[in-house]
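Incident log, support desk, overnight shift.

02:14 A customer reports that sequence design results differ from what the structure should imply. Their input is reproduced verbatim below. On-call engineer (initials T.W.) acknowledged and began investigating.
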């Protein structure tokens, strides 16, 4: 069930990236990379061990976008919480 919840949150993040993309190309690429890493983790669950760097990357993105894109930061916080609930 948490994986389904994470998938829904990932879809919401992608929707927000389309509707309100960051102006900076580097920021867009950073968020796309995080989304891709989350998808890879979802595909690997539970076969591989959780990737702690994924949570670190999401946490850094939350801090990075807190002021400039609060809605994206909120979605990233939700993703981070779901990852924690999954033991990642």
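02:41 Re-run completed on a clean worker. Output:
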């Amino acid at each position: 069930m948490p994986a389904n919840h994470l998938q829904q949150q990932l879809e919401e993040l992608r929707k927000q990236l389309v509707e309100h993309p960051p102006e900076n190309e580097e920021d867009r690429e950073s968020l796309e990379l995080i989304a891709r890493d989350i998808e890879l983790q979802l595909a690997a669950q539970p076969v591989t061990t959780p990737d702690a760097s994924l949570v670190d990357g999401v946490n850094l993105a939350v801090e990075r976008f807190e002021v400039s894109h609060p809605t994206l930061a909120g979605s990233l916080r939700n993703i981070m919480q779901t990852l924690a609930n999954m033991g990642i």
